[in-house]
Design brief:
The protein is mainly β. Helix content is 3%, strand content 50%. The chain has one helix and eleven strands. The strands form two sheets. Strands 2, 4, 5, 6, 9, 10 and 11 form a seven-stranded mixed β-sheet that branches. The termini are far apart.
Length: 123
């Protein structure tokens, strides 16, 4: 059974940093694309970043480019999202997701999802 478990969310002041972690069951991690999405209150889920299983290719959504970094540790079956220069607009529930095949920023292509972790950025 595929499992994705996020952690690392919390409350941070604007300009601060957080690092989110997503531990995947090995079946989810190997040969899959891992991604982060987020959903703010009253808004649709938004693509944040994705990485291939080798860690060699990363893609970012517009909101993440230049401030967020996605990485993975294959030995730990873990994907990370380092978030710097956080803004109140980054407040959302952040979800880890996995898919087979190539990298995509389309939510519907991801078949595996974690429960989410709340990130709140105060002004």
């Amino acid at each position: 059974q595929v499992e994705l478990v996020e952690s690392g969310g919390g409350l941070v002041q604007a300009g601060g940093s957080l690092r989110l972690s997503c531990v995947a069951s090995e079946r989810a991690f190997r040969r899959n694309i891992m991604a982060w999405f987020r959903q703010a209150p009253g808004k649709e889920r938004e693509f944040v970043a994705a990485i291939d299983w080798s860690g060699n290719s990363q893609y970012y959504g517009d909101s993440a480019t230049g401030r967020f970094t996605i990485s993975n540790d294959s030995a730990k079956n873990t994907v990370y999202l380092q978030m710097n220069s956080l803004k109140p607009d980054d407040t959302a529930v952040y979800y880890c997701a996995a898919k087979v095949g190539g990298i995509s920023w389309f939510e519907y292509e991801y078949g595996y999802w974690g429960q989410g972790t709340q990130v709140t950025v105060s002004s």
